[in-house]
Specification:
MFS_dom; Growth Hormone, Chain: A; membrane; EmrB-like; globular; transmembrane; 0% strand; 21 helices; disordered C terminus; transport; 2 domains
Length: 510
């Protein structure tokens, strides 16, 4: 944003501090909502009378809507002003949070989660931009570290808060708790941030590009979400959706590369450092999010964990990430960021390999240790990847590059959620059939019959046992695939040229 060098003088130190805390809180709320629903899916599915597979639409609809809105953030800020966009987005986020909590059907909650994602998309980059405007250059490093902490803490607290609320209150309250936070942020922004509003200008919007973006992403996500219930390409609808997504994607690329004012600036991909960096980020986030989606559901459906306990196991990753985040930040100036990124991705791969050996006999700490181990590596790929990607493009392309980076990260989360649940479900069916074909159940039936079990109870017991084992076998396979992707990501980053070491100006980031 132009003029960020002197806007910090418009606020007193006390107002600046209060504004900084409010902006960090707003970012925390939006990031929290990415994971708060994950552990609550079994509760929501049971309450609405839908399957857990259908319940995952609640996760993916939010992520996809956010991904669609992120590329628009820069245009919205220049057209209407950063503060105004931030406040309107916060109002919309609060309204759709209320409607999510009041939802009584799958259709309604998915539509409201889409609204939440569309409004939440601009909040994260806008809070970052406003922090850069209200703090002087010598304080920006410290305040951005606090902002980054909320980005790490949100996914950690999401499963715990969501689990506790689902177990002790009602799943509706995982959305209602956003209302007082949103109201506080709106009132504080109105009182504190008006002096640092940015200048506006009328800009043309690429409506055709936006329509194509929504079209191909929508077709792709619907295909991924309903494919596992419709035998994939054995169903004509899935084939049609796949063709529509593919054609829409190709037309979108051609249009954006030839449009004078593209909604998504694809020209940034000509920089090798940016391209290898964002694809590394997408692979890492996709593989990392696999555990955030699968582990809480497995613990609740198969291992008898409450939503709160499942959330604690999942959250250990981000808790330990908070410890190493300051270390990673200090190392950026003195260590080649490619070494940090590659090492962090390989470390995550080892954690996935560790989890690929879980069994149904694993206790709480056996399940938690890989999560703790994984957390230490998170900052070593998250923090330097931003430096690598944004230092690889021209200064005038920083906003576009940051928007594309956020877009691919969010899309990776949405797509991996659908793919992981598909692979997990298909793997369960394959493992169950293989076990059923080789199982010698006669002796077990005889022993259980002698213990007083009826024939029906015996069959149900054996069936439950097979289901439990097939679930963990399939999950181990998912983690093995995640390990392979993470090792590929660790190698992919070396396609980037060595960074120049220049300080990246993130004040233009949207």
């Amino acid at each position: 944003m132009s003029g960020s060098e002197d806007t910090f003088s418009l606020l007193s130190p006390r107002k600046r501090l209060l504004a900084g805390l409010v902006l960090a809180l707003s970012n925390f709320m939006v990031v929290l909502d990415l994971t708060i629903a994950n552990v609550s899916v079994p509760h929501i599915a049971g309450n609405l009378g839908i399957t857990p597979d259908q319940g995952t639409w609640i996760i993916t609809s939010y992520a996809v809507a956010e991904a669609i809105c992120v590329p628009l953030t820069g245009w919205l800020a220049q057209r209407f002003g950063v503060v105004r966009v931030f406040m309107v987005s916060m109002m919309g986020f609060g309204l759709f949070s209320l409607l999510c909590g009041l939802s009584m059907s799958l259709g309604m909650i998915v539509m409201c989660r889409i609204g939440q994602g569309l409004c939440g998309g601009p909040i994260m980059p806008m809070s970052q931009t406003l922090l850069m405007r209200i703090f002087p250059p010598e304080q920006r490093g410290g305040i951005m570290s606090i902002w980054a902490m909320t980005t790490l803490l949100g996914p950690a607290m999401g499963p715990i808060v969501g689990g506790y609320i689902s177990d002790n209150w009602s799943w509706h309250w995982i959305f209602f708790i956003n209302l007082p936070i949103a109201a506080l942020c709106i009132m504080a922004a109105a009182a504190l941030l008006k002096p640092v509003e940015t200048e506006t200008q009328k800009l043309p919007i690429d409506f055709a590009g936006l329509a194509l973006l929504i079209f191909w992403i929508g077709c792709l996500q619907i295909m991924l979400d309903i494919g596992r219930d419709r035998d994939w390409f054995g169903d004509p609808l899935i084939v049609i959706l796949a063709i529509m997504a593919g054609v829409g994607f190709l037309v979108f690329i051609i249009w954006e590369l030839t449009e004078e004012h593209p909604i998504v600036d694809l020209r940034v991909f000509r920089h090798a450092g940016f391209s290898s960096g964002v694809f590394t980020l997408a692979l890492c986030f996709g593989a990392y999010f696999a555990s955030i989606v699968v582990v809480p559901q497995w613990l609740q459906l198969s291992m008898g964990y409450t939503a709160t306990s499942a959330g604690i196991v999942t959250a250990f990753t981000a808790m330990t990430a908070l410890i190493t985040a300051p270390i990673a930040g200090r190392m950026i100036g003195s260590v080649d960021v490619r070494i940090m990124i590659s090492g962090g991705a390989a470390w995550l791969g080892l954690a996935a390999f560790w989890r690929a050996h879980w069994t149904t006999g694993a206790d709480f700490w056996t399940l938690s240790m890989p999560q703790i181990f994984q957390g230490f590596a998170m900052p070593f790929f998250m923090i330097p990847l931003t430096t690598l990607t944004l230092s690889s493009v021209e200064p005038s392309e920083t906003a576009s590059a940051a928007g594309m980076q956020n877009f691919l990260r969010t899309m990776a989360i949405a797509i991996s959620t659908s793919l992981v649940l598909t692979i997990w479900g298909d793997g369960q069916r394959v493992a169950r059939n293989e076990m059923a074909s080789t199982l010698q159940a006669g002796d077990v039936q005889a022993q259980l019959g002698a213990s007083g079990f009826s024939l029906e109870e015996t069959r149900q017991y054996i069936s439950n046992l097979v289901d439990q084992q097939s679930m963990v076998i399939s999950m181990n396979y998912v983690f093995f695939l995640a390990m392979i992707l993470l090792f590929i990501a660790a190698a992919l980053v070396w396609l980037a040229p060595k960074p120049t070491g220049e300080v990246v100006d993130t004040s233009a980031v949207h």
